[in-house]
Write a structure and sequence with these properties.
Layout lengths: L2 H19 L5 E6 L2 E6 L2 H14 L14 H10 L10 H15 L1 E8 L4 E8 H13 L6 H13 L6 H6 L1 H42 E2 L9 E2 L8 H16 L17
Helix pairs in contact: 1-2, 1-3, 1-8, 1-9, 2-5, 3-4, 4-8, 5-8, 8-9
């Protein structure tokens, strides 16, 4: 696939994944002005949000028809060399992706009491690593998450606590209670704000292309279409382009929102 075709595939997949997390079935947005937060429909929805977030923070499948990249890295590349930019339409996307990536890389201290192995420890961990551990433990039981336990073992050793792998496996539930019910729960509203911002960045970027390509129905027909750029010839990319334009036509589910500062001062 050429550059434009790859971009279309990445953008279509990114919107699809964000939409699975940022929707009214998952949560509602409450509050006024710059003091909003989100309320999950249930603890199960919050757990699903954590699981889906792992996919968004992970590389794409190497067997896919585009090079394997982390979603945010792919979006960053799109923002740096956009194929559809008109009058700086990509600016919001570049800002949204850059701010989110910077936030995710911040290393935070987490004070953790681990009764299963009788340890009190301060873990220093980048936010994106914590969120991926949370989501992976949400998805798997202890015998399906030995790799997660190995990550925890490294974190504990780094914190000055010599730890065997079996001890890290025993500590997984303690870690999960802290990561999922405390840190991730605290940051959920902020993460939703970031994801919604990225979605709106894609929306604003592609609006000019949508208006260029939209073909209204003719002769009383109800079927509309999109004029695909001549550079897009791969059948999969063509299908993704149509889906992408349909997504732009529908637009993001939530208006842009800003989460209260009380969800941004800790961790």
């Amino acid at each position: 696939m050429n550059k434009m075709e790859q971009e279309v595939v990445y953008l279509s997949a990114a919107i699809d994944l964000i939409k699975s997390m940022v929707n009214r079935a998952m949560f509602s947005v409450a509050g006024d002005g710059e003091h909003k937060n989100i309320w999950f429909e249930s603890s199960t929805h919050r757990q699903l949000f954590s699981i889906l977030l792992v996919d968004f923070l992970s590389p794409t499948d190497p067997m896919a028809p585009v090079p394997s990249q982390f979603f945010l890295a792919a979006l960053s590349s799109v923002a740096e060399k956009p194929s559809f930019e008109v009058s700086e339409s990509v600016r919001n996307l570049k800002e949204a992706v850059g701010t989110f990536r910077k936030w995710l890389r911040v290393e935070i201290p987490v004070n953790a009491w681990l009764p299963s192995i009788d340890r009190q420890v301060v873990l220093r961990i980048p936010r994106y690593v914590l969120l991926k551990i949370d989501g992976n433990i949400s998805k798997h039981n202890s015998l399906r998450s030995a790799r997660v336990a190995a990550e925890l073992q490294v974190l504990l050793i780094k914190a000055g606590e010599p730890t065997e792998l079996y001890q890290a496996m025993l500590a997984q539930q303690d870690i999960y209670d802290i990561f999922h019910d405390d840190v991730s729960a605290y940051h959920a509203s902020t993460i939703a704000e970031f994801l919604n911002g990225v979605w709106w960045g894609i929306q604003n970027y592609l609006q000019p292309e949508y208006h260029r390509s939209f073909t209204p129905p003719e002769d009383g027909l109800l079927i509309y279409g999109f004029k695909c750029p001549s550079e897009i010839v791969h059948p999969y990319a063509k299908a993704c382009y149509s889906e992408l334009m349909n997504q732009v036509q529908q637009g993001p589910i939530f208006k842009p929102f800003i989460v209260t500062k009380h969800h941004k001062g800790k961790y």
